[in-house]
Amino acid sequence: MDLANYVLDSGNQVDRILFELSFYTLNSSYNTDRFSALEATLRNPLAYCLNLEYNVNALTVFMDTVKGTPDTIESGDWTAADYLDDAGNTIPLHKKLYEYPALITTRCQNWTLNETELAEFLAMAQRCADRGVELIIVLPPMAANVRTEVCDAFGITAVMQDEVLPLLEKQNFTVLNYEWGTSCITDDDTQFFDGFHLDEKYGLPDWTAELFDDMQH
Description:
- The chain contains 10 helices and 3 strands, in the order H-E-H-H-H-H-H-E-H-H-E-H-H.
- It is mainly alpha-helical.
- Strands 1-2-3 form a 3-stranded parallel sheet, with helices on both faces.
- Helix 5 packs parallel to helix 7 (about 145-150).
- The radius of gyration is 20 Å and the shape is globular.
- It starts with a helix and ends with a helix.
């Protein structure tokens, strides 16, 4: 949201904004601020040069390039050990798909819709409409067990499907709903690295192609 408003305030020509939305970020307890550090570097390039994390990352990339070490990506060629639970029992999906719902349960078990954030989002959408900026909302895919073990279990599904999605779909922007709708991601065990993040080799390329194709229609 902050980044979208920053772009709209920049004075630069803006033709299209692609905006990702999810039940996870619409949670009242979601308070991750990814923009403040980015804004500091946008307004003050020296802040980028002096940022320790950026320098460590740059040095790591440089050393990996010198050593010929390939980038680490979120992808898995799973082995038999990945299909065993902590007790040694065989499980039908690779273990990371079971770990992720447990990881986000604490954040989601008291999930409530962030009405303030939603109102601010709609205000940003109206700014786009007033300026003739095409706004495309993308709800990315999630693994089926995230939906059943988290969203269904904590009442998130009902709020998203009965309140949020109907509200979004009656607005004057495009909604690409892969989170609650369908997509080319049909094999969670292969195409998801964990419950939210697509496998960078076996899932993400397929969905990216679908996304860009859908954006043209």
